[in-house]
Protein 1
Amino acid sequence: MKFGKVDRPELIDFTLPPDHPDTHPLLIMASDNRPLNVRVGLPKWTLPTTSLTKDELGYYSSQFNCIELNATFYRIFPAEQYEKWRDKTPEGFKFFPKMTNEVSHLRRMNDKVYEIADRYLEVTSLLGDKLGTIFLQMHNNFGPKNWERVVRFVEYWPKEFPLAMEFRHTDWFNDEKVAQELYHLLEENNISNILVDTAGRRDLMHMRLTTNEAFIRYVGANHESDYPRLDDWIERLSAWKAMGLENIHFFVHQNLELESPLLSAYFIEQLNAKMGCDLHIPKTTLPPQKGLFD
């Protein structure tokens, strides 16, 4: 993922902002006293360690308990493909598929998207109990002037399908009135507000949860600061757990994705130690690289 990429990450202040004041009350209200559900995954199942196997998804799902399925952003696959993905992965594995770009980018939530969304959900539902939260990422230039389109889509969305939304236009967060209206719309409709932690867009770190799900898309900068940033997330997630957070869905990206397994393994190891989780730590054998942080 190159979104938010900067040339000199050492100049970025990666300090996690304070929580939005409404996050703590939301977590208290939304808590059902259920056991913590933690999922950590990558955006694709091709790993450096899959080079010797043809069954890349099978191997990936033996190392991770979920995947951020970005392939579904580019096209709606035939029904049998979803069934193959479902059957190839072990019990308990979850797919977090991205909504087709026909809805978010090409038609920009206009009146033509509802038939497309229905078609997308018809095949996506074939993932069965392996379907996690679907996420919808809006274009960078999709701003608050499109508010009515957002309202109509949110109200149309079938509530049996968990949904998370990512808004990238900075005006959704710069204007307090606009931001509060958006947060309340998502909260009232049980839609998760995605947090994106990337170097060049610190304005997206609004730290406002709208459901009992922390859906976080973390983008490393291929820099030594990537690991302390993950440490900070461990502390914040632990604090949210103490407030009542029950679902952590954390997806690790890199500008150069080759290193994503390394970051994810580190994050899972620290998460297990801090929060008493028992997640499998993925194997991260990588070819030697010279001068990465020199």
Protein 2
Amino acid sequence: MTPTPDQRQMFRWLLIAATLMGVVWLLAPVLTPFIVAAVLAYALHPAVEALVARRVPRTLSVTMVVLLALLGVLSLLLLIIPILSKEIPLLKAQIPLLAERLNQHLTPLLAQYGVQVQLDVAGIKAMALKFFDGNLEDGLATLLSSARIGGSVVLSLLGNLVLVPMVLFYLLLDWSPSVERVRRFVPPRFQARTDAFLAECDDVLGQYLRGQLAVMLALALYYTVALKLAGFELALPVGIFTGLAIFIPYLGFGLGAVLALLAGLLQFTGWWGVGAVALVYGLGQVLESFVLTPRLVGERIGLSPLAVIFALLAFGHLFGFVGVLIALPVSAVLLVALRRVKVTYLNSELYRG
């Protein structure tokens, strides 16, 4: 059977798409900082355009926006410092006491079910002292050794920390001409449909970003107030960190919960800290999933919980930690494409017979 011209054209487009996907997959480690910078540039370029519209020179506008973005990321990371500076010294003294408390409460409970468990408190104390006394020196030694042999993990991380802001700066500086140059590669007969598709993607992503920012701020306020009412001394840094880290799906919430649980175990005697964290974070998850996200982000994106989990796993497997960050916005774009493919399929002769 001889393929029709439309079929041959479809095959050529599929071949081009498969080639591009193969190149992206092969060069994923190299492309990762560029992908991150491109996503950030897309999110930040409206701010640059707003400053330019107020007659601020573009170079100065880009510099201000990039510096503010870096300051925001640095501020989020610095929230962990007061938490760790207070908790690490307490851990050294409290881990043996925690083990002893577990022996007193958990051992009799498990014994009722025929499970005999007895923690070695002396051994745990010795291990804690060894870890916290020698961990810093060992960590520095390992880091220096890695750097001497070209230790790529550290050097790659430092390289990306420099490369992402630099690429972001040049993308924002040349955003509109770059978008126009890419647009010229689209055949003229497809440009109208491509522009409509990109406009729909831009609308979906804009709603996602605005809604996600509102969710983060609302949750930061909730966790801070709730932990403060529960009597946590570290309510402010833990609450703000948890709320803002929600932009990393599941991982941000989990890290915030671990920090809060650690603070509760170290500050309170008994099970009040654990119970308070379970209640506050359980209610926070319900609030986020059933109230804030549906109302503030809306159902426009249309990703089901299963689709979200699959997207996070798939992008995390392909691009690592960065893949988790870009999974949902990229999935939203793919969903727009799938909607159009569905409409085309339902109107095709293949479906109609």
